[in-house]
Amino acid sequence: MNKLILSAAVLALSAGLASAQTVRMGTEGAYPPYNFINDAGEVDGFERELGDELCARAELTCEWVTNDWDSIIPNLVSGNYDTIIAGMSITDERDEVIDFTQNYTPPAASAYVGLSADVDLSGVIAAQAATIQAGHVAETGATLLEFPTPDETIAAVRNGEADAVLADKDFLVPIVAESNGELTFVGDDVPLGGGIGMGVRESDAELKGKFDAAIQSMKDDGTLNAMIKKWFGEEALVF
Known about the structure:
Blueprint: H1 2-20, E1 22-27, E2 30-31, E3 35-37, E4 43-44, H2 46-58, E5 61-66, H3 72-77, E6 83-84, H4 92-95, E7 99-100, E8 109-114, E9 124-128, H5 132-140, E10 143-147, H6 150-158, E11 164-168, H7 169-177, E12 184-191, E13 199-200, H8 205-221, H9 223-232
Parallel strand pairs: 1-5, 1-6, 9-10, 9-11
Antiparallel strand pairs: 2-3, 3-4, 6-13, 7-13, 8-11, 8-12
Helix pairs in contact: 2-8
Domain Solute-binding protein family 3/N-terminal: 22-235
InterPro entries: Solute-binding_3/MltF_N (IPR001638)
Keywords: Signal
């Protein structure tokens, strides 16, 4: 009987250790090419490929979870997943609530896009809610029009609801290219944020350390730069 109890205890401990190695990766699934849902209904994009590689290097098993952007930080803190890997720029304000790994993209430009190059950037500007771009628009004194998803910000420009949209330039480049001249970049690029990193709970220092080491190893061997160029083009900023 004691052997049975001991065996059961060992099995329970083994199961606990196995589950401890499973990390739930939280992403939005609506911000190509960083992350999106493909035709098979699966998370895809730069961050899916990156996240899978980081998990392999850190010897972790990853499960992918999607969450709306406006509640992505609260749901990390409350334990609905273990990381945020969703095109999230590292900022001091966010760092007060969660921790970040080192960045896995260099600080990149944001940009304005409108229907013509001479639109008034002090007018109505669309941005995704709770982003560094929304914060910047508010600081400029323009009228900020916030939307839950990035696609809605583009639609607001197309239907005349907003004069322009401010977003990550990497996100906007393919949209402008595929618009057949309907959309165009306006004004100068806007440098914002400290690059994009993975968000983790402040209590998960060990997990942060594992992903920091994995990111650094990809920087050191050149695979991260190659992956950035694959998804964002040869002209993309790299390390």
